[in-house]
Amino acid sequence: MAHRHAPLVHLCLLLLFICTSTSADDCVCTSQYFCNCNSKNLTGVPQSLNSFVTILGLGNNRINTLESNDLNRYTHLEHLYLYGNRMTMISTGAFRNLEKLYELELENNELVVLRAGAFQGLGSLHTLELNINKLQTIEAGVFNSLSSLVVLYLHYNELQVLTPEMFQGLGNLNQLHLYNNLITTVHPRTFSHMAKLQYLYLFYNKIHTFDLSSVSGLTNLRRISLYNNNLTSVPQGDTTPNLSGVTHFNMLTNNIAEISANSFSGFDSLQYLRLSYNKISTIHEDAFKTLHDLRELYLNGNSLRSLDGQIFSGLGSLRSLSLEQNEIEFISSDAFTGLTTLTYLKLEDNKLKIFPVEPMSGLRVYNLYLQRNLLTSLPDMAYRLLDRTSRVILHQNPWKCDCRMIDFRRLMRGRSFEYQIVCDSPDELRGTWLKDVPLPNLTCAIPLITWFEVTNSDPLKEGNTLNLFCEVWGSQNPEITLRLPNGKHVLSTLEQKGRVQVLPNGTITIDDITGKDSGTYVCIANGIGGDTEKSLYVPEIMPNPFAQDSLNGVHMSKLAGGILGAIAVAALVALVVGTVWYKRRRTQTDEQVLVDNAQVNETPEAAGETAIDVAGTTEDTITETRA
Ligand SMILES: *[C@@H]1O[C@H](CO)[C@@H](O)[C@H](O)[C@H]1NC(C)=O
Ligand SMILES: *[C@@H]1O[C@H](CO)[C@@H](O)[C@H](O)[C@H]1NC(C)=O
Ligand SMILES: *[C@@H]1O[C@H](CO)[C@@H](O)[C@H](O)[C@H]1NC(C)=O
Ligand SMILES: *[C@@H]1O[C@H](CO)[C@@H](O)[C@H](O)[C@H]1NC(C)=O
Ligand SMILES: *[C@@H]1O[C@H](CO)[C@@H](O)[C@H](O)[C@H]1NC(C)=O
């Protein structure tokens, strides 16, 4: 058929001015209700079709305007396809007789402006597709007559500013697709009257601020999608918005730097919150407190350096927490408090140096991702945590296979994660699976100082006792020496000799301190393969008005208070490091039996790096001399 008509079409093309009204022969009508005139090079609406047609395809033609009378005779139309034409405008009243029209496809045209009255008469319209045009202007009230409209496609246009006037009359709208425009500004209350709105898609625009008052009170609203915009903060309203129906809120790829307190109040039913690939470095402790129904929280690809306080404590329904691709170095011990339903924890591609034993001890996750961090060591508690996790990814961490790994190594029993722990140092073990390293080869001939800190919890005052703790790991019980700010050295001993006591386990006490006791302290560990030292600055010691009158009752009670305080601190320290310490001592005992003294290959530099890695807060210096 098409072949036989080709010469006629060519003739028409040549004599275009004569053939403006195309004959019905161009269309394929399979019944009186359905005519397919798609892709026929039509320049206008055919006028000779059966007026009972309900489905009319005019897509992919060359129609460039729709005049007000063009569709007058097709009053039974329900579906009209005008996509892929060259329309730059729609005349007022062009559809005014199509009161049965249900679906109107105008996508992929050249529309720049929608004038008031363009859709007049379309009282039954359900779906209007205006996507892929060049729309810059939507005149006030253009959709006024579309009281039945449920779906409105406006994506891939050039809209810049959205106002409430543009969308008047869309009280029945369920889905509004506005993605891939050039929207910078959304005026307050733009969507307020869309009581039935369920899906609002605004992604791929340039929105800088989004006022939640524009959607507040829309109790049917389920999804707000604002990804790939230019938001610099989480959207807020003037007052707490009522967004009790919203389950999905997507702000992926914006410029948000901070999540402040109560950022999500009003989002009472939120289940999926995406904040990935922003610039978030700060999260207020109360930011997520109200999100009791949240199931998935995405914070990956941000600039978080630490997880402080109980930031996730309100999230009692959370199943998946994505924190990968940040710069997280530190996770506070209570950071994951309250995450009782968490099964999926993603922490890969961060800067964790210490395995988060304490933060994780209350969790029961099934999937744990820790690959590509800076982890060097695994304590035995880590084995217990990993052992109860179904899926563990740990590879590409710079594991240091030394004496600190002995207890972990001892617990290994062939779990699959054991095949991910490949030694990075010392040199002679690089590339070897930890599971294949014999216990005697896990040595610390040059000791490691992993911690040297003040353990007093209160500010230091004259007359108090200063408590320090120097945690040392090493083969064959390294000897500890303390250098005082005045340059004097005190060797560790179990005997009480004077005001300064250094115990072999690293517990240090300095009684009855004065201003002269502030300054730099150095903990020196002398091992079989060399010395390691780590310094600590003890800041100013406050004068204590009661310290002068040394024998009055006030002083004595202060002193008693101080002693009680010191005991409390010591108990705390014992609690925190007790397990580790116990293991170290066991380790050393074992090593005395097992270690081959001659085998000392570790460099002092390597030991120093580890000391910095693990503690990171104090200055480190390593003596170059070897014993
Ligand atoms: C429409 O016009 C183009 C170019 O003018 C021509 O190549 C094409 O074959 C025509 N299509 C039909 C269906 O006639
Ligand atoms: C986003 O906002 C920032 C700051 O207001 C501006 O400098 C930048 O050009 C914006 N980016 C885009 C893509 O609009
Ligand atoms: C939010 O709106 C819903 C429905 O109108 C209502 O039931 C609920 O009480 C409102 N919540 C608040 C906090 O105002
Ligand atoms: C462990 O040490 C022994 C003795 O030095 C050595 O022969 C062996 O190769 C070492 N094993 C590994 C896995 O490095
Ligand atoms: C260190 O040793 C002393 C004396 O044996 C003991 O009282 C203290 O609890 C020990 N500290 C730790 C942290 O093990």
TrEMBL record:
Key word Nuclease present: no
UniProt entry keywords in alphabetical sequence: Disulfide bond, Leucine-rich repeat, Membrane, Repeat, Signal, Transmembrane, Transmembrane helix
Ranges that cross the membrane: 559-582
Domain named Ig-like: residues: 447-537
Signal peptide: 1-24
Pfam family, one: LRR_1
Protein name as catalogued: LRRC15 protein
Lineage: Eukaryota, Metazoa, Chordata, Cephalochordata, Leptocardii
